[in-house]
Specification:
Blueprint lengths: L2 H76 L2
């Protein structure tokens, strides 16, 4: 192996070190950002699940009120 080849290998290794350092720093920033966002995402999921439950409750209540109203109208019309 010649002097030029050894120099090229060292340059490539140095470039890899720089790239790996950038990747490490990026991962550290992402992990910190994730730790900051996780509680907020959990709150959003809880609200979403709660809104799904509210939709079921409102739909069931509307159906029950509609059935009750229909029953009252039938009684009004047929029991005169």
């Amino acid at each position: 192996m010649g002097h030029d080849e050894a120099r090229q290998i060292h340059e490539r290794l140095n470039n890899q070190d720089v790239i790996l350092t950038e990747i490490r720093d990026t991962l550290i920033r992402h992990i910190a950002h994730e730790e900051e966002l996780t509680p907020h995402l959990r709150d959003m999921v809880a609200l979403w699940r709660g809104s799904k439950m509210m939709a079921v409750i409102v739909t069931a209540l509307a159906a029950a009120l509609g059935a009750g109203w229909s029953t009252l109208q039938w009684i009004k019309d047929h029991l005169k």
